[in-house]
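Problem 12. The chain below contains 323 residues. Write out its predicted structure in token notation.
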Amino acid sequence: MNRFIYICIGLIVSASLFGQARKPILMVVPSDAWCQRNNCMTTFTDETGARQAIPDYRKAVGQSEELRLVISEMATIMADRGFPLKDLEQSLKSLQQEDAELSLIQSKTSGSTILESPSDKLKRVAKADIVLDLDFNVKTQGPKRYISFNLRANNAYSNKTISSVSGDGKPSAAITTGVLLEEAVLNYMDAFNATLMTHFNDMAQNGREVKINILLWQNAPFDLEEEFDYGGETLPLGDIIDFWMDDHCLHGRYSRINGSESEIRYEQVRIPLFMQIAGKERAVDSRRFISNLSSMLKKEPFNITSKIYERGLGETWLIIGEQ
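Solution.
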């Protein structure tokens, strides 16, 4: 009997946590493979000067009525199971409006700018933490048609696959592609969504997994090897930031992927769902988490100003040296 009571209390606490915390946002996008088959790719030049090819979602939704129907049907299926989706087409419209605004993001002191790929722009505007990557083909068998599909739920910033499912629908006389998709995926969705719930429950117990990038403005008067007094020792700034991560990540869990005198990149950073801020327990995302580091660096002996740049709930850059 006592065990039953403890289980019930645990479920209530878990539900309470997710009621207050910022839940991950989901969005369906056509897969890279679909975009390649349908000539919906675009290129851009990254910060190294290399040309990169990525899906052109605006072109995809603009020229394929079939894709729009499939995304709409998937949104209905997921919403019926308690997973409302962010609409890709509306997010693209918002992106178009904010492109001009992005060009104005710069250092207040020197006018230094940052670079962003088209796919990163979409993630910023949509703030999609979990991307449902959908590939599908409509096939025929005699007078009937069916859909072959592959659906993956990816963490938008850790690039980890959370859940995946693939299969073929049964040949059907259904007219619309949306109905064909519904007939194909319904038998798979309960298991798919159960895996999503496992992922959400893991967050409740072990914190959100995010990325934190520490960067420098090009004209910063120091680098991450600059030494400061910290806890009675003289240490490089990069090491001090590592120690701060040790102290503030949930259970001290994070991975330093690489580091140099000009940048440090952290992945698998586990941040608590809540932190005590201004005398109250408040829900935490990566921006709020890293703002505490920014506040520390403003104080003695560092006296370092910085700019916080958000890329959704899942990734934040702290660009130090200026605002």
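Discussion. The chain has two domains: 22-204, 207-320. Students who got a different answer should revisit the alignment rule from Section 12.3.
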